[in-house]
Amino acid sequence: LNLIYFKKAKGFLVLTLAAFICLISTGIIATVITADFSQLLLGPFKVASISTGVGWLDVFAISSNIGLDSKIPPLIISLTIMITTYFVISRSESIIEQISLLCMLSCCVVFHLQYDMILLLVPLIWTLTKDKKEIIDYLIIVLIFYLWFGNSALARIYTYLVKDNSTQESILFWQRVLLFYPIFFVSLFKSYRKSRLHPK
After folding, report:
1. Number of other CB atoms surrounding residue 195 within 10 Å
2. Global confidence as pTM
3. For residue 153, what pLDDT is reported?
């Protein structure tokens, strides 16, 4: 998704910085847990190639949960969301806003599990550092903390209230989806509206 930045004047710098941070953080983790650096760095590709689970929020997970076997409808929807997001962020002058919306976009179109929600740290910083916060900013903050902590807390509660594990997972999944997507789409709309009011 960050390939979008190659169209920007500072795109190569952003990608280089992101790659540098990734390499440094992976190196630190590899040192701490005494793991092989290359295996740790390339591990996600191996996991993705053999994983048969369902993602936490993405469109393909929604498709699986409603019983669709074909990958074509979720693929079309994913491409539509990506194109829409690209159109919106291409009009924004704020790099942190662009990256934040891309992080949220990746939750829609890329396989993620709960531990991957750390990528929402960028949108959290984006909203917390705004001088003038709107309702949507507070909703993003609530959403992120729900995905980080609230979902796990509710899962523990549901173990006592709902005995069937598949029902528990289904309830939690749809709660995440119904919280995330409206907030993400409203964030896109607000960004687009702001770019219309303050054109480049």
Report:
1. 19
2. 0.77
3. 92
